[in-house]
Amino acid sequence: MSVEAKVRGYILENFLFTDDQSALDGSVSLLENGTMDSTGVLEVINFLEEEFGISVADEEMIPENLESVDNIVAFVARKKG
Amino acid sequence: MGKNIKLTEAVLEFDKDKEIEKITTRLRDILRQDLKRRGLVVAISGGIDSSVSSALCVKAMGQERVYGLLLPETDSSSETFEKGKAMVETLGIEYEVHNIAPTLETLGCYKWRDDAIKTVFPEYGEGWKNKIIISGGVDGQFNHFMLVVQQPDGKVLQERLGLKEYLQIVAATNYKQRVRKTIEYFHADRLNYAVVGTPNRLEHDQGFFVKNGDGSADVKPIAHLYKTQVYALARHLGLPDMVCNARPTTDTYSMPQGQDEFYFALPYEQMDIALWSLNHGIVAAELAAFLGITEKQAQFIYNDIEAKRRTTKYLHAKGVLVEAVPEVMA
Fold first, then answer.
1. Most buried by CB count within 10 Å: which residue of B18, B208, B294, B323?
2. Quick check: helix, strand or coil at residue B195?
3. Same domain for B134 and B244?
C-alpha cells in the first residue's frame, strides 16, 4: 500500500469514521476545515512515527508538513528519501 | 483593520470602583434571579484569581454568606497554602481545610501519572519531581509538550512527550481539579449555595481549565477581566501583599511551574495585550512594535491564540443533544 493510501486510510478511519474516499480532499487544510486540532496533529505524528519508522523533530511540527494529506505524504517522502 | 483603535499602555486600565460595583450587583442578581441560591462557595488556592473572586463574593454577599475551601494535595506548595489561609482570614469567612491527597491516592491519580512518567524516564521514583511545559506555538510550530523531571540530586532532565504519555499525565492530574469540584458542590448542596468559578479572561478564552473540574461552576465573576485587571483589582481591594505580588503558577505539578510555561505562549502581561489586540483588530505589525518582537512572532502568537480556541472549544461545550429539546432552556 502506498504512503498516500495509508495516510488517507488513517485519517478517514480515525478522524472521519468512514471509508468513503470522497470525504477527504488531499489538498484541503485539515486544520482550517476543522477535522484536526493540535491534539489531532500529535495523533498524526504518532501514527507517522509508528507506521513509517520516521522521527518527527520539533522544528518539523509545522503546518507546511502536516496540515493536509498532500503535505503529510510529501513530508513522509522527504523523510524516507 | 484597527478601526482607529490604538494599542497603548492604557488599554487595560479601567474604573475599578465601577467594576466592583458592577460585579457585586450582578452576583446578587444572579443568585436571586438565575440560581436561586443563598450564598457562595469558593475554593481558594491562594492565587490571584480565587483571591479576588472570593473578595468580590464577600463584598457582594457579606462574610456570612461566603464559604471558603482550602483544598491542598501532595504537590501543592506550602507558600500557596499560606496565601490561601491569609485570604480567608483577611476576609473573615467560615472555611474548611480538606487535604485531597488521600482521595487522589485512592483514585490512583499519582500512580497513573507516575506510570506515564516512567515510560519516558524509567528511573523516576521517590524524591523526583516533575512538570510539563508547552513548546512550539510561539515559534510557528504546533504546540507539543515536554516532560521535565528533577532528580533527587537536583539534576533536571527533559524529553518531548509522546501523545499517549501526555494524555495520561494530564488525565491523571485533572483528577485534582475534579475532586476539588466535587467537594465544592458537596458544600454548595448542603448550604444551598452556588459554586464560584474563578477563571480570568485569558483562562476562559484560551481553555485553560479542566472540564468538569475548575471549569465547572454556577457563576464566574471575573471571566471577562484580563489577568492584568485582576491584579489591579487585587491591589485596589487591599488584598495581602503576598497575594498581590505573586506570579501565577499552576500549583499542580511538583516542580515550580509558571502558567506561561505550561500553557500560555508569553507571560500574562504580554498575553493580555496580545489577546486584547486580537480582539480589537490590531494588526500583527502593531502588536510586534508594542511588544518589541518581530511581526512574524506576533502573527505566530495570534495563530496560537486561535489554535487554542479551536482545540479547547470542546471544553466549553455542554453535552450535545442529537435533537433539540425546546421545552428545556439551555
1. B208
2. strand
3. no
Q: How many Å lie between the alpha carbon of B143 and the closest alpha carbon of chain A?
A: 7
d(CA B292, CA B304) in angstroms, rounded, equals 18
Q: Which residue of B has its CA nearest to A33?
A: B310
- Rounded to the nearest angstrom, the minimum Cα separation between A37 and chain B is 5
Length of chain B, please?
330
All residues of chain A having their beta carbon less than 8 Å from the beta carbon of residue B144 are 42, 58, 61
Specify the number of domains making up chain B. 2
The 10s digit of each residue's pLDDT in B92-110 is 999 999 999 999 999 999 9
Q: What letter does residue B63 receive in the DSSP assignment? A: G
Cross-chain Cβ contact B144/A63 below 8 Å = no
From chain A, the residues in CB contact with B136 under 8 A are 58, 61
Q: What would the pLDDT profile of B220-278 be if each residue is shown by its tens digit? A: 999 999 999 999 999 999 999 999 988 877 677 777 777 666 677 788 899 999 999 99
Instruction: Write out the residue range of the structural domain in which residue B112 sits.
Output: 108-162
Q: What are phi and psi for residue B193, nearest 5 degrees?
A: -105, 170
Boundary (domain end) residue, out of B242, B257, B272: B257
**CB contact (8 A) between residue A58 and residue B163:** no
Residues B29 and B143 in one domain: no
Identify the residue whose cell numbers are 521535565: B148
Spatial separation of the C-alpha atoms in residues B7 and B279, rounded to whole Å: 11
Strand partners, B159: B147
pTM of full prediction above 0.90: yes
Residues B201 and B61 in one domain: yes
The domain boundary residue, chosen from B257, B289, B316: B257
- Are B114 and B135 in contact by the 8 Å Cβ rule? The answer is no
The residue type found at B252 is: T
Helix (H) or strand (E) holding A52: helix A38-52
